[in-house]
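Protein modeling request. Please complete all fields; requests missing the sequence field cannot be processed.
Requester role: graduate student
Desired output: 3D structure, token encoding
Chains: 1
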Amino acid sequence: MTGAQWIVRSLKQHSVKTVFGYPGGQIMPLYDALYDGGLEHVLCRHEQGAAFAAIGYARATGETGVCIATSGPGATNLLTGLADALVDSVPIVAITGQVPCALIGTDAFQEVDMLGMSMGCTKYSFLVNDPTSLPDIIEQAFIIANSGRPGPVLIDIPKDIQLAKHDYQHYCHKSIYHQPVTPAQSISKSSSLSSSVLQTIQTANQMIAQAKKPMLYIGGGIIMANAVAELRHWIKVTALPAVSTLKGLGSLDINEPCYLGMVGMHGFKSANLAVQESDLLIAIGVRFDDRVTGNLNHFASQAKVIHIDIDPAELGKLKQAHVAIAADAKTVLPLLNCSIDITAWRERILQLKSLYPARYDHPGKGIYAPLLLKQLSEKILARHAVKTIVTTDVGQHQMWAAQHMLFKQPNSFISSCGLGTMGFGLPAAIGAQMAQPDSCVICISGDGSFMMNVQELTTIKRKHLPVKIVLIDNSRLGMVRQWQQLFFNERYSETDLSDNPDFITLARAFDIPGITISEKEQVLPAIDQLLSSKGAFLLHVKIDAMENVWPLVPPGAANHDMLDSLNKEDA
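Delivered output (571 residues):
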């Protein structure tokens, strides 16, 4: 068979059912093999959309997402998506076409050094320069993408290798076939732990037993490790107070009384103050990202730190841990101490929650986005029989969704967390809907982000996907405008988007119905109409251009110095 036919066969052997991509000259042999190869291909209308759709698919299922593009500009259009997957630890295999081997290095038409360009935004990259190495490289790509800390892998395949005919099965037994490429990728999710790791866990248990104000700080690594059940059991037994990163939302039972929600720059005030008061911070599957920690020197400055992560590169990278455990969270959690008495600390946590509740009072007739998203979340939770997945773009709407919507299950909130990529939400919703066809998938977007990959409305139309879109429109690049207001003397440079199109007319051009609302009494009927729609639907929500996200930790400030409003004295 040809190399292209072998690629399709290999994808099927790895249980891949759906791939996302866009054809072109140097990937044409693979598209010819896809024509009757038995895989479902989703034609996105931009390669970046294909990469984000693959991420949405992977995040919704825990499986490996696959995206495909041609050489040159097609391949480079994948790079932002690959960078997004790398930062958020999402297993992706990207396959790109390349000019024939004899033309590599000659500046041939649509030739780009993808091996070199992709090294900074992938876990590993391959250039196939020998057809007999193709079977091993494909196998290695899936191993690397899913071993240890997951991430994206690129396979750049010249056109002549896609066309080359061989007995590829004969080349599936090389010594590298099941060997990790580097030591960093050899970390196994095995249940066996070394004696040194077990000894370190014992030290951690002693610290937990001695703590008076322990706090659990959880990130997306919990979900990637499939350790949500173990985490929830441990929390049930210990009643330990907990906070979450943006990517960790959905890990914890929202009904746990000492769960404080999101921490960080736009986290809840109660969550930030509790972390600052803690004497032990148990960090699991987190990166100590600057959007979480604020001024790192002042983050949990009174606390000792236990850091558990499968990637040893994260241990001590930013915050020095007193105990660092390089292991799989699913394996470590059942071994952590459950015998703690922190009654007084739990009472303090409940007091903080009572002192600093979320605010939903808003004057006038206009729509207050946090309240709308809270009401949407309540309607979703009331639909017990319908699984719902929410994707977001990046900006004010993303933070409002994270603050005011409740996510009961892992993989029910899919957002660009580490890279913060505008244009992510719509194609990610497409990937999630393809992965979970019986689920209700809702994309929450802003008018700035929505326009960045608006062409994917055609993909929704083409595949008849029932994706629901909530478009929060303030006719501004909202988060940038907010920072200009607060920190750049109200010099509003290039954040006015008042020349936006008529979004309802735009949606109808893609056969997607929708409505526009601008007053608060319209909200509940509109949400009902959105959720009851059988197919795709656009709910266009017009809000005040000057609405801000609160709380906010100013740049360079400690998390306990967060602002609650424009009046700093209110903080």
